[in-house]
Amino acid sequence: MMNEQQQPTLERLEDTDLTLADPADDIRGRTVVDPGGEEIGKVDSLFIDHDERRVRLLQISSGGILGIGDSKQLIPVDSVTGVDEETVHVDQNREHVARGPVYDPDLARQDPRYFADVYGYYGAAPFWTPGYVYPRYRR
């Protein structure tokens, strides 16, 4: 198992020079809903594993008005169960996500356990652990 110092660096897509291979895979701006169809928020950003160039986390923005006062939670792509033209479906309920880890850029840079804690909150194995398989979801 990778130790904390060996965890890959995750970066917001817009903070890199990377682009998505298929623009249709860009789910930013889509509404995120829980298994009961309740709206959680919108996909605000995608966190990329720069080494493997895969999306690892979604940044979900909720609340606030025009982006002011909104909350930004992170959720692993492992929670995505489906994607359509306007919606991203996840296997977590709205209340659980709302209580989840809030994105803190300073903490993410300084605390090597930060992303492991995000995965742990959602009960997902971190992508850097042995045997991890990238999730497949219905499109």
Describe it for me?
The protein has helices spanning about 95-100, 105-110, 115-120; strands at about 10, 30-35, 40-50, 55-60, 70-75, 80-85, 85-90. A hairpin with a 3-residue loop joins strand 6 and strand 7 (about 85-90). It has a single domain, classed as Photosynthetic Reaction Center, subunit H, domain 2 (Photosynthetic Reaction Center, Chain H, domain 2), CATH 3.90.50. Strands 1, 2, 3, 4, 5, 6 and 7 form a seven-stranded mixed beta sheet that branches. About 25% of the residues are buried. It is about 15% helix and about 30% strand. Mean pLDDT is about 85; it is low at about 1-5. InterPro entries: Bac_photo_RC_H_C, PRC-brl_dom, PRC_barrel-like_sf. This is PRC-barrel domain-containing protein.
The sequence of SSEs as H and E is EEEEEEEHHH
CATH architecture group name = Alpha-Beta Complex
Name of the level-1 CATH class: Alpha Beta
Helicity range of the residues? 10-25%
Task: Quote the beta fraction.
Answer: 25-35%
| Helical stretch tally | 3
> What is the strand tally?
7
| CATH homology superfamily name | Photosynthetic Reaction Center, subunit H, domain 2
The tally of structural domains comes to 1
What is the secondary structure topology, with strand pairs?
Layout: E1 10-12, E2 31-33, E3 39-49, E4 54-62, E5 71-76, E6 80-83, E7 87-90, H1 94-98, H2 105-110, H3 114-121
